[in-house]
Design goal:
The protein is an alpha+beta fold. Helices cover 34% and strands 28% of the residues. Strands 10-1-2-11-12 form a five-stranded antiparallel beta sheet, with helices on one face. A five-stranded antiparallel beta sheet has the order 5-6-7-8-9, with helices on one face. Helix 1 crosses helix 2.
Length: 249
């Protein structure tokens, strides 16, 4: 399984993904799920993936080839005129690969090779944009009502994001919020695991403002994890005590 989050702020975009893949409890590996391409000063595009690993790697490999092969330059992420067109092309490619894989494996393969993606980025002269792309190739865009997207194992980290997110928050607070969301997911589900990949894209920066990998020895992540656990326990004990003998009203 996977957990990835893309978030829109007034200041730009913040992305985080885990790196765990597994085919059973005895076959666990680490694979990157966050990728990005850029023309400094002109555009930056990032992609996070969840689902069948062979499918997502095929999508990334073909996108990489298009940025290098002259014959495919017109469909390259570095040449398309808008983020909407980038989302259309990425969705089309995902749908094609899913369909090809299912056809090659017959009916028994149906549903086993699906994947989803979060696409984020900005092209000069346009707004930063965030999209959620489904296995069928269609997609939706983040808005003021839906300012972040999750893919993979979403349910454990979602309540944290809903309660803590503010569009005007700083990048630093957004990273802290994502750390808490991922820590809650890691604690609840073994199919999501460290290390984590983090990227911050500042509005009109057209490059990664901040990028790092967070492993189990990271002191800040350890501090957030232990501090959040302590804060939850303190909040729980501060609530009014329940009594079996409370008067009924």
């Amino acid at each position: 399984m996977t957990y990835c989050v893309g978030m829109v702020l007034d200041r730009g975009l913040v992305l985080m993904s885990d790196t765990r893949t597994n085919s059973g409890v005895d076959n666990i590996s680490v694979f990157r799920k966050m990728y990005h391409w850029s023309n400094p000063g002109e555009r930056i595009i990032a992609l996070m993936t969840a689902g069948n690993l062979a499918t997502t790697q095929a999508v990334i490999s073909r996108l990489e080839e298009r940025t290098k092969a002259p014959v495919d330059r017109q469909n390259s992420l570095l040449e398309l005129p808008s983020m909407f067109q980038v989302a259309v092309e990425a969705g089309k490619l995902l749908r094609e690969i899913v369909q090809e894989t299912q056809d090659d494996n017959g009916q028994h393969g149906k549903g086993r090779f699906t994947a989803s993606m979060i696409l984020a980025g900005q092209i000069k002269g346009m707004e930063p944009r965030l999209f959620l792309i489904y296995p069928e190739g269609n997609f939706i865009e983040a808005s003021f009502d839906t300012p972040f997207f999750q893919i993979g194992e979403t349910k454990y980290g979602r309540p944290i994001l809903i309660r803590g997110y503010e569009r005007t928050m700083s990048f630093e607070d957004a990273v802290k919020l994502l750390m808490v969301s991922f820590d809650s997911t890691l604690k609840a589900n073994l199919s999501v695991g460290l290390p984590l990949d983090l990227m911050v894209i500042e509005r009109d920066g057209f490059a990664a403002k901040h990028e790092r990998r967070i492993d189990s020895t990271d002191p800040y992540f350890q501090a957030v994890s232990s501090g959040w656990s302590d804060a939850l326990r303190n909040a729980f004990h501060s609530l009014p005590d329940y009594s079996f003998y409370r008067e009924q009203t």
